[in-house]
Design goal:
It is a single chain. The protein is an alpha+beta fold and 140 residues long. The chain has a single domain, classed as Double Stranded RNA Binding Domain, CATH 3.30.160. β1 and β2 form a beta hairpin. α1 packs across α2.
């Protein structure tokens, strides 16, 4: 089991890995070996995730989420399959950990008396400056 939080864990069978050829430098091996990994996780049909976590993960996934609700993570940072596999898994778990955290609810606050006074003083100061601009000076 891949542990996300103390209450959420994903079974390894829910994750599908395919190996593809990696772009970028790698010498002669780049054309022969498939070192990049493409990790797929079916977010919408996963029995391991609660509904609220699933909804937040869909928002967080962004362009990595397909129309069918599958998260696709491609890892080609390293030159070995094993390192890329670990990298993709770490990225998926970080995304799900972030989604598992509930956002803090906003507590409405009231402005303090001092801030109200400062705001009103600033408005009167600005108004007097504008009033001085519009008045025409006396001609002698």
């Amino acid at each position: 089991m891949i542990e996300i939080t103390d209450r959420i864990a994903i079974a390894p069978r829910e994750i599908e890995e395919t190996f593809i050829r990696a772009p970028g430098p790698g010498g002669q091996n780049v054309n022969k070996l498939s070192t990049a990994v493409q990790l797929r996780f079916d977010l919408r049909h996963s029995p391991s995730l609660p509904d609220d976590v699933r909804a937040r993960a869909e928002r967080l996934a962004g362009k990595r989420l397909t129309k069918e609700g599958v998260i696709v993570i491609t890892a080609a940072r390293f030159r070995t399959q094993e390192q890329n596999r670990d990298d993709a898994l770490v990225r998926l778990t970080e995304l799900l950990k972030k989604a598992a955290r509930r956002p803090a609810t906003r507590k409405p606050t009231r402005p303090t008396l001092g801030s109200k006074k400062r705001r009103l003083e600033g408005k009167t100061r600005r108004g007097s400056i504008k009033k001085l601009r519009s008045e025409k000076p006396d001609e002698d």
